[in-house]
Amino acid sequence: MAIVSSETLILFIAAVLVAGSVAGAMTGGVSQLSEALEDRSLDVSQEIRTDIEVISDPGSGQIYDDGTNTVTLLLKNTGSNTLSTDPTTVDTVIDGQYRTDQSIEILDATQWEPGSVARLTVSNVTLGTDTDHRVVLNVNGNRERFDFRT
Questions:
Q1: Between 1 and 112, where is the model more confident?
Q2: How many CB atoms lie within 10 A of CB 127?
Q3: Does the keyword DNA damage apply (predicted)?
Q4: CA distance 132 to 115
Q5: What is the distance between the alpha carbons of residues 129 and 149, in angstroms, rounded to a whole number?
Q6: What is the dihedral of CA 52, 55, 61, 63, to 10 degrees?
Q7: Cα angle for residues 103, 109, 115 (degrees, 5° grid)
Q8: How far is the CA of 113 from the CAs of 43, 49, 75, 116, 137, in angstroms?
Q9: Which H or E run includes 74?
Q10: Of 28, 84, 112, 148, which has the most beta carbons under 10 Å away?
């Protein structure tokens, strides 16, 4: 009988040790998952509160200046976030080419706050005439597409 009791005790201790190590591993995994979800929820919140609209008139003929090789767009902040005027926060793709030579100027406020308008100027752009062109902008995960003809 003593042998059965000692075997049971050894199995019980082993089961408790295994359960403790599994619980420790699970706690670490759950903690990492929780932190990842929190980070992602902040990103999604930022994305939801960010919205821009291109308010330039595509038929005005003032989008592309072939004399200076610049594309100029007027962007309105229609979201609830104040956006950064750092040009690197706006990803610009013109006719499938990523552009980095750009500047942002606020026209009617001191910051790019909700409701204010900014002028995005992209330099060193060579576009053909009498053709359709596409600009895709990405700000904080918000994607805006603008088509125009030169």
A1: 112
A2: 15
A3: no
A4: 29
A5: 8
A6: -20
A7: 95
A8: 19, 12, 12, 6, 18
A9: strand 70-77
A10: 112
Quick one: pLDDT band at residue 15, thresholds 50, 70, 90?
confident
* Per-residue pLDDT at 1 exceeds 60: no
- Structure-block tokens of residue 140: 């904080």
Residue 15 Cα to chain centre, angstroms: 47
Say what the pLDDT of residue 95 is: 94
CA distance 74 to 59: 14
- Residue 68 CA to residue 126 CA, distance in Å, equals 9
Q: Supply the DSSP symbol for 150.
A: -
- DSSP result, 118-148: EEEEE-S----SS-EEEEEEEETTEEEEEEE
DSSP 65: E
DSSP state of 59: T
In this structure, what token pair is assigned to residue 39? Answer: 């980070």
Q: Which amino acid is at 98?
A: Y
The pTM of this model reads 0.69
Predicted local confidence at residue 21, as pLDDT: 81
Residue 14, SS3 per DSSP:
helix
